[in-house]
From TrEMBL:
Protein known as: Exo-glucosaminidase LytG
Enzyme Commission number: 3.2.1.-
Superkingdom of the source species: Eukaryota
Signal peptide: 1-15
Species this protein is from: Blattamonas nauphoetae
Molecular function terms from GO: hydrolase activity, acting on glycosyl bonds
InterPro entries: Glycosyl_Hydrolase_73, MGlyc_endo_b_GlcNAc-like_dom
Alphabetic keyword roster: Glycosidase, Hydrolase, Signal
Occurrences of domain Mannosyl-glycoprotein endo-beta-N-acetylglucosamidase-like (ranges): 16-169
Cross-referenced SMART domains: LYZ2
Organism lineage string: Eukaryota, Metamonada, Preaxostyla, Oxymonadida, Blattamonas
Pfam families tied to this protein: Glucosaminidase (PF01832)
């Protein structure tokens, strides 16, 4: 009986682990767009990929699934928004749950491009561009008010370090040198 219960539990967990929740497949999907962010906006690919992974739980969030919003960008995109419950740390200590409007994109590519435009069109994120070190970039994004979680920078950096995403930055730098 215990073995049957364990098998049932294991098979249920396997069914819940879909392609989109596989970090490797998620990163493969995000990589071309994140590399393009360096060319278009001078935003580090590692930072974009890690933010997307963090913001969506590797693509599992309803925001990613229903709205193709991989960065938690609030507001409207081409007149479309979706209301989602989220948490904010207004006092940098205690989470407060709110329902807010988030942009709805037609696809992941538009989400990535709009993230680049969003950051580079607002002066308070100016320090995030043209960086060579990911921690400086994500710190500038946090300092600009992108996220309220007091350990957001550390969480994003941990993803970059765990998945060796700084290699993507080097790849982007190398593409610059070869063009």
């Amino acid at each position: 009986m215990i073995i049957l219960t364990l098998l049932l539990l294991f098979s249920t967990l396997l069914c819940q682990f879909t392609e989109e929740s596989d970090p490797i497949k998620f990163l493969e999907m995000m990589k071309p767009g994140c590399l393009d962010l360096w060319k278009r906006f001078r935003l580090l690919p590692s930072v974009a990929a890690a933010q997307a992974a963090h913001e969506t739980g590797w693509g599992r969030s309803n925001l990613a699934k229903k709205a193709n919003n991989f960065f938690g960008v609030k507001g409207y995109y081409e007149g479309r928004t979706i209301r989602v419950t989220t948490h904010e740390y207004y006092d940098h200590t205690n989470p407060v749950y709110i329902t807010d409007g988030f942009r709805v994109y037609p696809n992941a590519t538009e989400s990535i491009r709009d993230y680049g435009y969003f950051l580079t069109s607002r002066p308070w994120y100016e320090g995030a561009t043209n960086r060579r070190y990911y921690r400086d970039s994500i710190q500038a994004i946090w300092d600009g008010g992108y996220a309220t979680d007091p350990i957001y920078v550390d969480k994003v950096c941990k993803i970059i370090e765990t998945w060796n995403l700084a290699n993507w930055d080097q790849e982007a730098f190398d593409m610059d040198a070869n063009s």
